[in-house]
Write a sequence for this structure.
């Protein structure tokens, strides 16, 4: 195993827990062997993960991960930490786990060490639902992996990331990643054995991804039954190392990415571009996907109303394994019913997230002051608070391009949101 240290901490809770259908996120390795210039985890990990910038890699301890799932299934707290117990209700309810949130689980580290394969054999044994996100293709020609996947066409879902069909642009931005044509072949091999495969056109980069009119039909022809998209986001607090990556991207796209995002994004810190820029492009992608017979999904905060199902990563809705207590699902319910209340999504939140917010595994709780003020708050209570806080950046009122508008309060004192963008001249509802 080449001296690989197996002490990386995973699974964790996604920072997108307010609107994510797969908030339990798993990574096999502490870093990715690929060197994509847009990597959204680079800024975080380069400051928080020991040895990250030096290229040191660690993996999870498979025995520890297996023990967590085994004890959760038995509802036995012996031999597990308080932090690990947070995941018991999620595992016991059979909710789908996201694999590959911050690092590729099938990259060259996996080809060398095989830790993902070891865990796959366990998850095959217990028939646990999984959704994978990867840019790798080699494993789809390896019978050790494909024989396992062939037994799970009913609950193992794969997202193959491709941001452009242009081989040269992909090579320069996604360093070390297989060419787009090889990834399309990976889709073809998986779909041929009955796997549900999603084209993951994320991140969408202006100046790189405009050939989606070619890429989406190519993915559909290869066998992808859905697609998901999200625009590139830029970290405005970038240090010199990250700014150098943005400069490298700028050379490929033909404009200064840093300057463009600073000028066209209203948010603080993490710049996401404005809705007016994104919406026409997302609508075009949706129309092409539907024409190709594909489900369409948007994980971008803007245009979430374009989703064909609650899970914005493309997990088949008929599986019934996605976590539905989230704002993404609330937007769909509001689209269908005209409005939505917290009680419409509260049940899974109360079931799955009754653990201390301050101790949420892998979740950035911010300052010591925030942790002190919310010390006795559960994650479920925090999510309800976020729903009702009209000024919070991740609340329905602020984080989703205005598609949900406050429209009073229900009998529980929770904000009711109506569906639809605010009309010109329309005043805010007085909340009292």
């Amino acid at each position: 195993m080449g001296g690989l240290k197996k002490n990386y901490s995973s699974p964790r809770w996604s920072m997108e827990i307010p609107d994510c259908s797969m908030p339990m996120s798993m990574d096999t390795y502490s870093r990715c062997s690929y060197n994509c210039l847009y990597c959204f985890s680079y800024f975080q990990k380069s400051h928080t993960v020991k040895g990250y910038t030096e290229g040191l890699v660690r993996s999870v301890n498979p025995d520890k991960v297996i023990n967590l799932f085994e004890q959760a299934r038995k509802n036995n707290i012996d031999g597990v930490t308080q932090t690990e117990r947070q995941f018991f209700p999620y595992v016991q309810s059979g909710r789908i786990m996201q694999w590959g949130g911050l690092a590729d689980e099938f990259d060259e580290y996996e080809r060398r060490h095989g830790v993902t394969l070891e865990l796959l054999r366990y998850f095959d044994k217990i028939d646990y639902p999984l959704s994978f996100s990867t840019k790798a293709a080699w494993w789809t020609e390896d019978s050790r992996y494909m024989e396992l996947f062939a037994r799970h066409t009913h609950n193992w879902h794969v997202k193959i990331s491709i941001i452009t069909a242009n081989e040269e642009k992909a090579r320069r931005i996604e360093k070390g990643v297989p060419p787009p044509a090889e990834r399309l072949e990976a889709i073809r091999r998986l779909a041929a054995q009955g796997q549900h495969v999603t084209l993951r056109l994320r991140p969408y980069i202006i100046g790189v991804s405009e050939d989606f009119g070619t890429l989406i039909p190519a993915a559909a022809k290869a066998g992808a039954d859905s697609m998901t998209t999200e625009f590139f986001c830029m970290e405005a607090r970038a240090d010199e190392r990250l700014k150098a990556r943005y400069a490298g991207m700028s050379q490929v796209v033909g404009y200064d990415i840093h300057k463009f995002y600073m000028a066209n994004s209203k948010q603080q810190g993490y710049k996401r571009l404005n809705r007016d820029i994104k919406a026409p492009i997302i609508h075009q992608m949706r129309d092409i996907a539907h024409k190709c017979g594909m489900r369409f999904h948007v994980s971008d905060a803007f245009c979430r109303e374009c989703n064909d199902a609650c899970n914005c990563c493309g997990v088949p809705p008929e599986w019934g394994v996605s976590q539905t207590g989230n704002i993404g699902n609330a937007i769909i319910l509001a689209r269908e019913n005209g409005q939505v209340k917290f009680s419409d999504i509260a049940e899974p939140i109360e079931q799955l997230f009754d653990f201390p917010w301050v101790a949420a595994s892998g979740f950035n709780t911010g300052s010591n002051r925030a942790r002190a003020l919310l010390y006795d708050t559960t994650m479920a209570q925090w999510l309800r608070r976020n729903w009702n806080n009209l000024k919070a950046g991740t609340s329905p009122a602020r984080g989703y391009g205005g598609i949900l508008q406050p429209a009073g309060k229900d009998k529980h004192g929770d904000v009711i949101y109506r569906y639809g963008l605010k009309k010109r001249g329309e005043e805010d509802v007085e909340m009292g």
Observations:
- The first strand starts at residue 12 and ends at 13.
- The radius of gyration is 21 Å.
